[in-house]
Amino acid sequence: MTTLNIIAAVIFGIALLHTFSTSLFLKAAHRAKRHDGLLHLLGEVEVVFGFWAGILLVVMAIAGTRQEAMQYAETRNYTEPAFVFVVMVIAASLPVLTAVMRCVETIAHWLPVPTTTAKAWLCLSVVPLAGSLITEPAAMTIAALMLAPQVFHRDMPERLKYLALGVLFVNISVGGTLTSYAAPPVLIVAHTWGWDSTFMLQHFGWKAALAVFINGTVITMLLRRHLRPTDVMSDNARTSQVSVTVILVHLAFLAAVVLTAHHPIIFLGLFLFFIGYTQAYQKSQRRLIIREALLVGFFLAGLVVLGGMQQWWLQPIVSALEPKVLFFGAVALTAITDNAALTYLGSLIEGISDQSKYMLVAGAVAGGGLTVIANAPNPAGVSLLRGSFRDGAVSVGGLFLGAIVPTMVAACALFFL
Comparing C-alpha atoms, which of 168, 191, 165, 167 is closest to residue 180? Predict the structure, then answer.
């Protein structure tokens, strides 16, 4: 434990407090005249960790040397923030959304319930599970965009919005555990511990699917009287007449990015080709969510910088807990730190038992919906849906309360089954 480590922990704590108080900055921005732009910027959840990561680097340069601060920043692994940025933009493109929407509409008409209810249930249950194939950030982006007009509209009671958001975040977090590459907390330990997709399906997948369906079904029943019967196809896909060829090309780009998730040079190169393709066929496109995705990437990059200095206090806590206690400790710790960072620290512990490995990852994914920073895709969901909440911001307390019950369902499924 050094002075710099303590300072880094203090800055991390301040960043957490800032995250919990972003709504205060937004309210101040509405009242301010001279500095409303700055206050609004500091009220953006996605800006918080990037902002305080910059403060940390400045402090490191002052306390040590500029070269040490630069070396620390340059030796962090920014693959995940870059990947989330790229996959968000591609997954939210109109052709990809069109393909998913058409599938959802087709299945919804087959189900023996009203189509509006069926669509909401599919977006809150099946789409999160599809994250095991297309990655969690892509599933979050697609689910949020499809749920926005139907569930997150201004006539929906605020309490139910937070319940729906909590279920969405929890289901995305556990829904990506059917494979070994889709959920960030699993992806980061899968190679080290030798966990392949077969292992994940046997030990995590079926339990996660059960929890997702329970959460999705219960929240859909609570929402059904307030669901807006909007025709998402007419709003998004039919107006642009997206061709099958363009859809297939976009899906090919998405698949290629997912397959090269560990190779940023490759997937960033593919992204540049993707941008060129969208410019060549603008009639089948709409505005790409570059700004929203950049904010999410900035958030995650800031978390990488800040989180890299927290190992000195997090790892002793993780390594000292018994397996069953570790599960509940992981759920709690995930609320204040990214669950991928938590499992990464666990992977550094030598001689950790198989039971402890399972409990650590299970607790990390179960608690992935409690806060905005708990799971990498959560900032994407907040960025896309916050406009429908009061004051244009997602309350940290509201999200926490909305996610408690679905978190308990996921925790029970992963702990007892």
Answer: 191
Tell me the domain boundaries of the chain.
3-74, 79-416
CA dist., res. 380 & res. 402, Å (int)? 18
10 Å CB burial of residue 241 (0-12, 13-18, 19+) is exposed
Q: Which residue spans within 64-201 are E strands per DSSP? A: none
Tokens 């009061």 correspond to 390
Structure letter (DSSP) for residue 260: T
Q: Which helix (H) or strand (E) holds 390?
A: none
Closest listed residue to residue 16, CA positions, set 306, 379, 301, 304: 306
Residue type at 150 in one-letter notation: Q
DSSP 8-state symbol, 177: G
CB count, 10 Å around CB of 11?
17
Residues 6 or more apart whose Cβ sits within 8 Å of residue 75: none
Tens digit of each residue's pLDDT, the chain (417 residues): 688 889 998 998 898 888 778 778 878 887 877 778 888 888 877 788 889 999 999 999 998 888 989 999 999 989 888 988 998 889 888 898 888 888 888 898 899 999 899 999 999 999 999 989 888 888 898 999 889 999 998 889 999 999 999 999 999 999 999 998 788 888 878 878 989 889 999 999 999 999 999 999 999 999 999 998 765 444 444 445 788 899 999 999 999 998 898 899 999 999 999 999 999 988 888 888 888 888 878 888 888 888 888 878 877 887 788 999 999 999 998 888 778 878 877 887 777 889 999 999 999 999 999 998 889 889 889 988 988 898 788 888 899 999 999 999 999 999 999
Task: Show the tokens assigned to 52.
Answer: 């305080």
Tokens of 26: 């937004």
50 close to 298: Cβ distance less than 8 angstroms: yes
- Residue/partner pairs of 139-142 with CB below 8 Å, 24 or more apart: 139/91, 139/172, 139/175, 139/176, 139/377, 140/168, 140/172, 140/377, 140/378, 140/380, 140/381, 141/87, 141/88, 141/91, 141/92, 141/289, 141/377, 141/380, 141/384, 142/91, 142/92, 142/96, 142/97, 142/100
Q: 15 is written with which tokens? A: 């960043």
